Amino acid sequence: xxxxxxxxxxxxxxxxxxxxxxxxxxxxxxxxxxxxxxxxxxxxxxxxxxxxxxxxxxxxxxxxxxxxxxxxxxxxxxxxxxxxxxxxxxxxxxxxxxxxxxxxxxxxxxxxxxxxxxxxxxxxxxxxxxxxxxxxxxxxxxxxxxxxxxxxxxxxxxxxxxxxxxxxxxxxxxxxxxxxxxxxxxxxxxxxxx
Length: 194
Hints:
Blueprint: E1 15-21, E2 25-26, E3 38-39, H1 44-54, E4 60-62, H2 66-74, E5 81-82, H3 110-115, H4 124-137, E6 142-146, H5 148-159, E7 173-179, E8 182-190
Parallel strand pairs: 1-6, 4-5, 4-6
Antiparallel strand pairs: 1-7, 2-3, 7-8
Helix pairs in contact: 4-5
InterPro entries: His_Pase_superF_clade-1, His_PPase_superfam
Organism: Paracoccus rhizosphaerae
Protein name: Histidine phosphatase family protein
Protein backbone atom coordinates (compact mmCIF):
# COMPACT_ATOMS: atom_id res chain seq x y z
CA UNK A 1 0.00 0.00 0.00
CA UNK A 2 1.32 3.46 -0.91
CA UNK A 3 0.70 6.14 1.66
CA UNK A 4 -0.74 9.37 0.35
CA UNK A 5 1.13 12.47 1.27
CA UNK A 6 -1.17 14.60 3.34
CA UNK A 7 -1.26 18.29 2.47
CA UNK A 8 0.49 20.57 4.91
CA UNK A 9 1.86 24.07 5.05
CA UNK A 10 5.20 23.05 3.53
CA UNK A 11 3.64 21.80 0.27
CA UNK A 12 4.08 24.23 -2.58
CA UNK A 13 2.51 24.17 -5.99
CA UNK A 14 4.62 24.25 -9.11
CA UNK A 15 5.27 27.71 -10.44
CA UNK A 16 7.28 29.59 -13.04
CA UNK A 17 9.40 32.62 -12.23
CA UNK A 18 10.25 34.96 -15.10
CA UNK A 19 12.70 37.76 -14.39
CA UNK A 20 13.16 40.64 -16.80
CA UNK A 21 16.22 42.79 -16.30
CA UNK A 22 15.40 46.47 -16.76
CA UNK A 23 16.27 48.43 -19.92
CA UNK A 24 19.83 49.82 -20.21
CA UNK A 25 20.81 52.41 -17.63
CA UNK A 26 21.60 56.02 -18.40
CA UNK A 27 24.58 56.52 -18.01
CA UNK A 28 25.48 53.08 -19.29
CA UNK A 29 28.84 51.47 -18.66
CA UNK A 30 29.39 52.69 -15.08
CA UNK A 31 28.70 50.71 -11.92
CA UNK A 32 25.07 51.19 -11.02
CA UNK A 33 23.72 49.42 -7.98
CA UNK A 34 21.74 51.54 -5.56
CA UNK A 35 21.97 54.79 -7.51
CA UNK A 36 18.51 55.54 -8.85
CA UNK A 37 19.23 56.22 -12.51
CA UNK A 38 16.88 56.33 -15.47
CA UNK A 39 16.55 53.65 -18.14
CA UNK A 40 16.77 54.08 -21.89
CA UNK A 41 13.45 52.58 -23.01
CA UNK A 42 13.85 53.64 -26.63
CA UNK A 43 14.50 50.20 -28.18
CA UNK A 44 10.87 49.66 -29.17
CA UNK A 45 11.45 46.47 -31.21
CA UNK A 46 13.24 44.83 -28.24
CA UNK A 47 10.51 45.94 -25.84
CA UNK A 48 7.83 44.58 -28.17
CA UNK A 49 9.69 41.27 -28.57
CA UNK A 50 9.95 40.84 -24.80
CA UNK A 51 6.32 41.90 -24.28
CA UNK A 52 5.29 39.10 -26.65
CA UNK A 53 7.43 36.58 -24.76
CA UNK A 54 6.07 37.67 -21.37
CA UNK A 55 2.42 37.23 -22.32
CA UNK A 56 -0.13 37.92 -19.58
CA UNK A 57 1.61 37.34 -16.24
CA UNK A 58 -0.61 36.47 -13.28
CA UNK A 59 1.51 38.65 -11.02
CA UNK A 60 4.03 41.43 -11.70
CA UNK A 61 6.47 42.50 -9.00
CA UNK A 62 9.11 45.16 -9.59
CA UNK A 63 12.05 46.69 -7.83
CA UNK A 64 11.16 50.27 -6.88
CA UNK A 65 14.20 51.55 -8.81
CA UNK A 66 13.34 54.19 -11.41
CA UNK A 67 14.86 52.08 -14.20
CA UNK A 68 12.56 49.16 -13.30
CA UNK A 69 9.46 51.36 -13.04
CA UNK A 70 10.25 52.94 -16.42
CA UNK A 71 10.77 49.51 -18.00
CA UNK A 72 7.42 48.28 -16.66
CA UNK A 73 5.68 51.36 -18.05
CA UNK A 74 7.38 50.97 -21.44
CA UNK A 75 6.05 47.39 -21.56
CA UNK A 76 2.54 48.56 -20.64
CA UNK A 77 2.67 46.69 -17.32
CA UNK A 78 1.39 47.89 -13.96
CA UNK A 79 3.22 46.05 -11.16
CA UNK A 80 1.03 44.53 -8.47
CA UNK A 81 3.66 45.65 -5.98
CA UNK A 82 7.09 47.23 -5.69
CA UNK A 83 9.44 45.14 -3.57
CA UNK A 84 12.36 47.05 -1.98
CA UNK A 85 14.23 43.81 -1.24
CA UNK A 86 14.74 43.33 -4.98
CA UNK A 87 17.03 46.40 -5.29
CA UNK A 88 20.35 45.76 -7.00
CA UNK A 89 23.49 45.03 -4.99
CA UNK A 90 24.94 48.05 -3.21
CA UNK A 91 28.40 48.52 -4.71
CA UNK A 92 29.45 51.08 -2.09
CA UNK A 93 32.58 52.98 -3.18
CA UNK A 94 32.42 51.24 -6.57
CA UNK A 95 29.19 53.07 -7.50
CA UNK A 96 29.54 55.25 -10.60
CA UNK A 97 33.02 53.93 -11.45
CA UNK A 98 33.94 53.10 -15.03
CA UNK A 99 35.07 49.47 -15.47
CA UNK A 100 38.72 50.52 -15.91
CA UNK A 101 38.66 52.22 -12.49
CA UNK A 102 37.46 49.15 -10.57
CA UNK A 103 40.08 47.56 -8.30
CA UNK A 104 41.83 44.41 -9.48
CA UNK A 105 40.74 41.69 -7.04
CA UNK A 106 43.12 39.11 -8.48
CA UNK A 107 42.03 35.55 -9.10
CA UNK A 108 38.99 34.67 -6.98
CA UNK A 109 36.84 31.58 -7.05
CA UNK A 110 33.12 32.22 -7.55
CA UNK A 111 32.57 31.60 -3.83
CA UNK A 112 35.29 34.12 -2.88
CA UNK A 113 33.86 36.71 -5.29
CA UNK A 114 30.36 36.15 -3.88
CA UNK A 115 31.70 36.93 -0.37
CA UNK A 116 33.72 39.98 -1.39
CA UNK A 117 32.18 43.19 -0.06
CA UNK A 118 33.15 46.50 -1.69
CA UNK A 119 33.97 49.20 0.84
CA UNK A 120 30.70 50.63 2.26
CA UNK A 121 28.73 48.21 0.06
CA UNK A 122 27.35 44.69 0.20
CA UNK A 123 28.60 41.40 -1.15
CA UNK A 124 26.68 39.29 -3.66
CA UNK A 125 25.98 36.90 -0.76
CA UNK A 126 24.51 39.80 1.27
CA UNK A 127 22.27 40.79 -1.63
CA UNK A 128 21.20 37.21 -2.35
CA UNK A 129 20.32 36.74 1.34
CA UNK A 130 17.69 39.47 1.05
CA UNK A 131 16.43 38.54 -2.45
CA UNK A 132 16.09 34.75 -2.15
CA UNK A 133 13.45 34.78 0.63
CA UNK A 134 11.26 36.97 -1.61
CA UNK A 135 11.64 34.48 -4.46
CA UNK A 136 10.94 31.49 -2.25
CA UNK A 137 7.81 33.14 -0.84
CA UNK A 138 6.14 33.43 -4.26
CA UNK A 139 3.11 31.17 -4.54
CA UNK A 140 2.13 31.54 -8.21
CA UNK A 141 3.63 32.26 -11.62
CA UNK A 142 5.30 35.64 -11.40
CA UNK A 143 7.12 38.18 -13.53
CA UNK A 144 9.77 40.23 -11.77
CA UNK A 145 11.17 43.40 -13.29
CA UNK A 146 14.46 43.82 -11.53
CA UNK A 147 18.26 43.81 -11.87
CA UNK A 148 21.13 41.61 -13.01
CA UNK A 149 21.90 40.89 -9.35
CA UNK A 150 18.32 39.72 -8.79
CA UNK A 151 18.66 37.34 -11.73
CA UNK A 152 21.95 35.96 -10.45
CA UNK A 153 20.51 35.56 -6.94
CA UNK A 154 17.70 33.47 -8.44
CA UNK A 155 20.19 31.40 -10.44
CA UNK A 156 22.27 30.87 -7.29
CA UNK A 157 19.38 28.86 -5.84
CA UNK A 158 20.26 26.23 -8.46
CA UNK A 159 23.98 26.64 -9.19
CA UNK A 160 25.34 28.41 -6.10
CA UNK A 161 28.05 31.10 -6.52
CA UNK A 162 28.64 30.01 -10.14
CA UNK A 163 25.61 32.22 -10.87
CA UNK A 164 28.06 35.12 -10.95
CA UNK A 165 29.43 33.80 -14.27
CA UNK A 166 26.12 34.22 -16.15
CA UNK A 167 25.71 37.13 -18.57
CA UNK A 168 22.51 39.10 -17.91
CA UNK A 169 21.93 41.67 -20.65
CA UNK A 170 19.59 44.64 -20.23
CA UNK A 171 16.03 43.71 -21.25
CA UNK A 172 16.85 39.99 -21.07
CA UNK A 173 14.55 37.32 -19.67
CA UNK A 174 15.56 34.51 -17.33
CA UNK A 175 13.09 31.77 -16.47
CA UNK A 176 13.14 29.37 -13.54
CA UNK A 177 10.56 26.83 -12.42
CA UNK A 178 9.84 25.41 -9.00
CA UNK A 179 8.19 22.19 -7.94
CA UNK A 180 7.85 21.96 -4.18
CA UNK A 181 11.23 23.29 -2.98
CA UNK A 182 13.21 22.24 -6.05
CA UNK A 183 14.18 24.96 -8.51
CA UNK A 184 15.29 24.43 -12.12
CA UNK A 185 16.64 26.83 -14.71
CA UNK A 186 14.65 26.86 -17.94
CA UNK A 187 16.38 29.72 -19.78
CA UNK A 188 18.93 32.46 -19.13
CA UNK A 189 19.62 35.78 -20.86
CA UNK A 190 16.95 35.68 -23.59
CA UNK A 191 17.79 39.03 -25.11
CA UNK A 192 15.23 41.41 -26.52
CA UNK A 193 17.46 42.49 -29.38
CA UNK A 194 17.56 38.97 -30.85
